[in-house]
Structure formats: C-alpha cells, structure tokens
Amino acid sequence: MAYDHFGAPVKSTEVALAGYPDAVELPGSPFSVEPSSMQSVMSQPAVRVASSGTRDPAMAAANLADELRHPFLGFVLFFCSAEYDLARLGAALENEFPGVTVSGCTSAGEITSRGYDRGCISAIGFDRRYFSIDCALIREMDRFTLQDAQNVIDGLLSHCRSARLAPIKGNTFAITLLDGLSSREELVLATLNAALGSIPQFGGSAGDDERLTNTHVFHGGRFHSGAATVLLVNTPLDFRVFSTHHMAEGREKLVVTKACADTRTVYELNAEPAAEAYARAVGSTVEALDREIFALRPLGVKIGDHYFIRSIQRVNPDKSLTFYCAVETGIVMTGMEPGALLDTVRTQLEASERVVGQPLVTIGCDCFLRRLEAELTGESDAVSEFLRYHKVIGFNSYGEQFNGMHINQTFTGVVIGQPDVCSG
Prior knowledge:
The protein is of the alpha+beta class.
C-alpha cells in the first residue's frame, strides 16, 4: 500500500502495514558463504560490506578495515553486539579508519552476509564518489527542540550540498539510530520529521542483546547512551525506503483506561489490571506471560487505515505492562495475530527491486521480536537465506522508525540500486 512518495518515482518511500499476498517460492541464493570470523561479502564500486565474528575489539576493527578501506572510502556504518568491550572497540575503529566518519549502534542481533548473526559486528563502507553522508549526535533526547532539529538538519544539508553529487530533492534520505531504552524516541522523531520536510527517513532503536539494560549509539569515536544519531545520505543512485509488518487484525479490543505515557506503562486495560486483561485476551495466564507470547501476540493501534504495532516489553510486579512504544490513556488497542513472516517483506523488496533494479545493498532494521518469532517457528534459516539473497545488511532493533513514527515488529529499511541503474 502506498503511503507517501518523494521526488522522482525511483526516489520513493512506501509503507505496507497489512495484507497478505500469495506465497512466492523463495529463489535459491547466489551466495555461498562459509562460516568464519571474517566474512567479506562483495566489493562493488559504490559500497563494500564486511563483518567480523572475533570478540577482540582491535582485531574485529582491523578485519573490517582490511575489507572496507580503499582510496575513496567516505563513510562507515556499523552495527555491533553489546558483548564487545565498547570503549576498546570505539578506540579501535577510530584508529583503523583515520579521516573517515564512522557511525553505528549496538544491536539485539546482527544481519551480515550470512543473514541472521549474533555476537559480531556488521559494517558497510560507502564510496564518496556515490554517497555524500554526514552525521550528527543528539545528546539530550528529552530536551530536543524544533529549533535544535532545524539546526541539525541545516548543517547536514550543507555538507551534502557541498559534495555536489546530486540535488537534495529526490536524492536524499535520513537514517536515525536512537537509544532503544530512552523512552524518548517519539519526541525526537516527531521533531526531526518536521525539520526534514519531504526527505524520507527510517531507522532503528539500538539494542543490547536482549539484556534491556544499556543501549548505545556511536559518534565521534565513542559510544553514547541516552543519545541519538541522525545520518543524511545524498546519492545519485536510485533508492526506495519502505516499512512493513506481517501482523493481522484480531477480534480482541482493549481500551487503555490507566497509563503513564512517560514510562510507556499501562496499568489498566478495560478497567482491570493490564496483565490480567491481556493474558485473557491471548488465552494465557499472567504467570505464563513471557517474551515468546509478546512476540507472537502483540497489540496494535489503528491510525487511519493502518495498524501500528505496540509490543510489550515486560510484565511488572503490580500487573502493569511496559511497552516498547508510546501508549497513553484512552487509546484502543487491538489484539494482533501473525501472518506469514516473509510474505510482506518479500513483496516490499521485490517491488523495490523492480523500481531500482538489481540492489547494491539493502540496509535493514528488523525488530528483534520478528527474529524471535522466526526462531520459535523454525523459520530462521529461511529468513537468513532470504536476507542473503536480497543483500540485506543491518541489525535487529528494539523498535523501528519511519517518517517520524516509532513502530514495533516491522522490517524497515532502504533498497539502494546499482550505479548502472542510477537516474543521475
């Protein structure tokens, strides 16, 4: 379903949030990647991709540099496990990429050349002949104003214009990486969206391997918590930004009758303890509620014609529920049921590839609860094969971002076309 379009037809943003097309047979992957601590995927004229599974920060950074460094390297974007010694990793990355801007975040799982991966670091190197990219750090998310956002975006636009690669309109998109436990994503995203105007935006909330304690973004040679980064990408290459989920509307309706918006905690649903009402709606007990049930039976809020998922993070001792996304008193939540995990993603990526041609790379933010569902249903290998085939590199996130919205249990990203199919 078309949601919005920006610029020329091939520089577009679309969202699919419901609907289940007929299943399509997954074609065989053209890649054959052997497991190792260092996997080099491809070397294209505009992008290089690499990953490393070694736990030593200095060696991991050196592995990435061996694959990504070249005379025209202009920017490195990475996603890493929170199991690394982050201080040492930050210093090592700065040491290995002198004069190159490096940005990234911690994750709840990585997407590498092998598909789903864990305990590693995945990175993309962008050639400055095809990409002008600048990045800014938002240190205080809860005090971020519209004027702050305008200043940030104006600075990023100035950098992109100075490279003279392509006009800003129709050739630019934004990537946001936010602290996934800050509870301030909505404020920052809405403010940035106002400043971005017609520039499409997507991103993901940083993770910490499901520990739910500390998440970090990387900027200026070090990792930051309670912060966010925004990247502006200007390129003459064709691209398509998208977001999709596979959840379908159920029959159960739950009205939020008491909540704290600041902490994303719902105390009552239908005027009774939230956990009790939710457990009954999904055919469970309060004692049995866990992340597996949360992954398979999330709640959704209908805005316009679309449902936006609100995933539960935990049950609290007072039988309240804390969510990963914004909640407030008075909203009506609908019980959602999973459809086929890959169908809507396949539809979006194949539609994107029909527009931009053979993909150079797809940068993907895939909710960690979707990955958990794939593991619970035995589909993890199939998903990994699918991600490999479509050249997806990215991470499993604690929430996704799309055009100013903070959403859950989606696959959100951008498909970038090859230089030989660029529209100039």
